[in-house]
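dumping this here before i forget
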Amino acid sequence: MDVKLDPSYPHFASIPWTLSLLSAPTVRSRPTSTRVPKPDTTEDSLFAETLRTPTTVLHSLCFYHLSPSPPSSPPTIEGTEFFQLFTLGSGMNGQPGVLHGGMVATLIDETMGCLIGLIQEQSEPRTEDEVEARTHPKFGGEVKVVTAELTTRFLKPLRTPGTVLVTARMGGIEGRKWRIEASVEGEGGERIAGAESLWVQLRGRGRL
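structure:
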């Protein structure tokens, strides 16, 4: 959707360096479904409830760039990027004024999961398991892909309160294995952390 329709757009538009990221004509926002409480299942309760307070994750905005490929061309999965802005309070710190390293990894994992959601929205089913998951009412049309391995490199302290950009990039898909890279940056492109991960797509009936 138009990024200006996102509820958090006014906040990030008030920050010069994040406004510049959102001003490109190719930018589109993707609703942050993990910020919506789901009391019946408790799914996403970490970001929808626990981390949705004035001292944790104050604002979040997900966005991507429209593909330059012609409409008739199939979408290219490898290299697909997804971006998420976070404004953080000081309620998740480890050291004084520094975000806990586990929370840095959590922000990375969250953005990687959103990248997978974007790719699934824009691509056709690739395997029999995906076909079953997308067509069988028991699975609600959703293919589950879960984190199997996440290696994070901490390059600089993430100071709080403040705002960061997490970028997730699809490295490739081999069968049920998804490989994703990510980076965490501050104002001016200051690199704070980097990560590589392996995600595994569950079989049609929720089995690894």
